[in-house]
Amino acid sequence: MDLHSIIEQLETGEQDAALAALQGYNQEMSQCFTFNSQEEQDRKVGQLSRLGELVINFLNKDLQPSCLLACLETVRILTRDQQCLDPFVSRRALSTLASYAGISVAGAQTAPHSQPLEGRVEEDRGETEEAAEGSSEVVKELSPPSENPDQEVIVEALKSISNILLHSETGQVVAADLQLIEGVAKRLKQCHSSTWNHEVRFFDLRVTFLLTALRVDVREQLARELHGVSLLGNQLDATLGLCWPGTLETARAQFEDVPPEDLPPLSRQQIELAMETLKILFNVTFDTNKRKVDEEDAADYRHLVAILRHCLMSRAGGEEETSDFHSHTVNLLGNLPLPCLDVLLVPKVQQGSIEYMGVNMDAVSMLLDFMERRIDRGLKLKETLLPSMNLLTESARIHRETRKFLRSKVLPPLRDVKTRPEVGDALRNKLVRLMTHIDTDVKDCAAEFLFVLCKESVSRFIKYTGYGNAAGLLAARGLLRGGRDSGIYSEDEDSETEEYREAKAHINPVTGVVEEEQPDPMEGMTEEQKEYEAMRLVSMFDKLSRTNVIQPMQLGMDGKMREMTPEDLHKLTHNPLFQSEEPARSDSEEEA
Predict the structure, then answer these.
(1) Distance set, CA 180 to CA 99, 110, 165, 583 (Å)
(2) How far is residue 119 from each of residues 94, 170, 214, 215, measured CA to CA in Å?
(3) What is the pTM of this model?
(4) What gap in Å lies between CA 3 and CA 45, rounded to an integer?
(5) Which of 447, 347, 438 shows the shortest CA–CA distance to 389?
(6) Which residues contact residue 1 at a Cβ distance below 8 angstroms, ignoring those fewer than 6 apart?
(7) What does the alpha-carbon distance between residue 431 and residue 469 come to, in Å, rounded to a whole number?
(8) Which of 350, 356, 276, 340 is nearest to 313 (CA)?
(9) Tens-digit pLDDT profile for residues 472-528
(10) Which residues contact 561 (CB under 8 A, 6 or more apart)?
(11) How far is CA 117 from CA 120, 128, 185, 211, 332, in A?
(12) Cα(243)–Cα(421) distance, rounded to whole angstroms?
């Protein structure tokens, strides 16, 4: 049946005729996510928009269950096409869909709205199809959600709303004005209830994610008015099936005495719900570490960190799923206030735990392993590596036990003094290689991590990385003359191995290793000849500088590099200590 015939059947207003027409259309288009030339032509003549208007009109009638479901399925299919969403982004249409989704708020008033913000939106589930643009208009209130208990109906409506939010700025504005976040939050509070099936829970979270990713005002409303951190923390708690043997200690219900490494993997449904929740929490806490939090908020964050620690120690059915799950967990941990991260070290040391200085380091060790796997993978390091590396860097800066544990793993006592710091498969070698990475952010982050593990001591930093690798960070901080940065660290010994002490005097500080002695290129020269060669080199630098081929630099009194001016080079070339009695060479000789 062509689109024109379907529209004619709907225009009759007969439910049976509409049901037959829509079921045929839905079956034909169920797997259509891209639109060919025929759909383009239908779009041009407005047939798809007309179909959308008719379906919305039907949804505002008293329908048979089968016809209602067919209409919602058609809306879901039509909202995949972001060019044909005008019928679905009005207040009337979105209110209708919200009512069937069970998230409408009675008496929702149009409120001033802020500009949409770029969000971390991703198309990572096939059933959450595309969305649109449109306009807003006033609409009547429909029946309350309790009158629509059919969960299949709820899911279809939620999918359509997800599609609209994903692509339509107008739809996002109308959804915010209709206070849909309040309706979703009300149902999210029932996370410990068995009333709702997996799909309802998932698409509740998907709608919440899209709203918080794309609307700053909704994000703030969820965080403050609706106590989003506590609400979503409880959602994670319920999803993972946790119990609390201690104030900030978690365990999986019915597996309280099982070590973390022996816990069964989380189910696919648990992973889906947990990752969606983690993404929403990331949006809600996006600027948390940039502002002060009060005691009540701090308690919520510490409670959340305890749950996130359990996430780190849990695994999914497959390696890739586990990696994605841990990645979302690490991203969220990086948003939270640093003082609250000590909760990662709270659990008691048990048999099989990694213990250091009497503290349980299981979570920190897991983060370190996760970071190393990301280095080894080598893909999109800025996006995949930096969150975990930044998290470990800041944790090491503020928590002494964490720093000492990480240093013991990353920078153990130096024994091999003949291999360059960047050569090898140890974690230190991998990190030193990153210090010269082409991406400045990756390079700086790797250097900062190692610098913090060295307690921001220049001499110790050079010892483990070599001056050549360390120069970038030292120049940026004005530490090329040595010393220590302003960080506050506890005193502890820099234990030197016997091998290092014996070779220390022969180590090349630039490369960080003992090198074979090279022949002296100036051997046999008189002092006058050496001075002449030095002046010749300065003259070459001067010429290259004047022609803008290079920019000579020199170390300033503040420990930072500064440009050498022509006057600086002139002073060098006319220094009486370096005047030569030999005749001047021609330009061609100087360039030889």
Answers:
(1) 10, 12, 11, 87
(2) 22, 16, 5, 8
(3) 0.81
(4) 11
(5) 447
(6) 21, 24, 25
(7) 11
(8) 350
(9) 898 888 887 766 655 555 555 556 666 666 666 667 777 777 777 778 888 888 989
(10) 475, 480, 553, 554, 555
(11) 10, 20, 21, 10, 19
(12) 46
Q: Who's near 345: CB < 8 A, 6+ residues apart?
A: 359, 360, 361, 363, 364, 399, 401, 402
Q: Which residue has the tokens 């008293």?
A: 62
The pair of three-digit structure tokens given for residue 526, joined into one six-digit string: 């008189």
Neighbours of 153 (CB within 10 A): 18
Phi, psi for 421 (deg, rounded to 5): -60, -30
Name, in order, each residue with C-beta under 8 angstroms of 167's C-beta and a sequence gap of 6 or more. Answer: 82, 85, 130, 131, 132, 133
Q: Which amino acid is at 471?
A: A
Which residue, among 183, 97, 103, has the nearest Cα to 132 in the 3D structure? 97
| Token pair in block for residue 435 | 């210090």
Neighbouring residues of 274: CB distance < 8 A, sequence distance ≥ 6: 236, 239, 240, 266, 311, 325
- Counting as low any pLDDT under 50, the low residues of the chain are 45, 109-148, 577-592
The answer to whether residues 421 and 512 touch, using CB atoms and an 8 Å cutoff, is yes
Q: 3-class SS at 578?
A: helix
* Distances in whole angstroms, Cα of residue 448 to Cα of each of 281, 432, 466: 27, 11, 15
Which structure tokens are listed for 169?
């700025």
Cβ atoms 346, 248 nearer than 8 A: yes
Give residue 223's pLDDT.
Answer: 93
| SS3 label, residue 562 | strand
Q: How far apart are CA 329 and CA 281, in angstroms?
A: 10
Q: Tell which residue, 395, 389, 408, has the closest CA to residue 492.
A: 408
- Cβ burial of 560 (10 Å; 0-12, 13-18, 19+) is middle
What is the separation of C-alpha 39 from the centre of its chain, rounded to a whole number of angstroms?
37
Using CA atoms, how far apart are residues 103 and 87, in angstroms rounded to an integer? 20
Tokens representing 201 are 């829970």
CA distances from 372 to 173, 338, 375, 414 (A): 42, 22, 5, 20
- CA-to-CA distance for 175 and 179, rounded, in angstroms? 6
Residue written as token pair 């409670």: 303
- Does residue 222 contact residue 208 with C-beta atoms inside 8 Å? yes
Q: Which residue has the tokens 């050498």?
A: 564
- Do 359 and 345 touch, CB atoms closer than 8 A? yes
DSSP string, 501-537: HHHGGGEETTTTEE-PPPP-TTTT--HHHHHHHHHHH
Are the CB atoms for 227 and 220 separated by under 8 Å? no
- Which pLDDT does position 198 carry in this prediction? 95
pLDDT value for 554: 78
Residue 70 and residue 19 in contact, taking contact as beta carbons nearer than 8 Å: yes
Rounded distance between C-alpha atoms, residue 391 and residue 383, angstroms: 13
In 351-506 the beta strands, taken as DSSP E runs, fall at 355-356, 359-360
513: left (phi over 0), alpha (psi -120 to 50) or beta: beta
- pLDDT at residue 482, as a whole number: 67
Rounded distance between C-alpha atoms, residue 151 and residue 195, angstroms: 10
